[in-house]
Protein: UPF0225 protein HPA02_34240
Amino acid sequence: MNQRACPCGSGAAYADCCGPYHQGAPAPSPEALMRSRYSAFALNRTDYLLASWHAATRPASLAADDNTHWVRLEILESQAAGDQGRVHFRATFREGRRWAVLEEDSRFLREAGHWYYRDGEASWQRLKPGRNDPCPCGSGRKFKACCGVA
Ligand SMILES: [Zn+2]
Ligand SMILES: [Zn+2]
Structure:
């Protein structure tokens, strides 16, 4: 598990990327925290999702979700100024044969050296990849030769 590629898509091993943050190391930037939260969604680490959520907006609980497969993260823009940060990202996911993209402009706050997710403006869009379209997972292959294989 620790040697495998990190779910956030950085290209690094999980143990060298989001893994340490899941173990409690402070993420150095809003973008690093965002990536680690994406990985936590992908790995169903609801404990980490709650721990990295700011107390002001944190839900009381989060249900594990085995139906949603997170397949691609794209960071469009990220910035930090003092103890506030923003990350604009796009996350592609699949539920069975249904594909969608979540696009969110998230806000982060730093307290006592730890960044926390505060809230964000999110929108969802359904994807309907055709057989010859580029696969939404970002592999560069055609959908029919990648995730679209029945
Ligand atoms: Zn990662
Ligand atoms: Zn694919």
Observations:
- The two ends are 26 Å apart (CA to CA).
- The first strand starts at residue 68 and ends at 81.
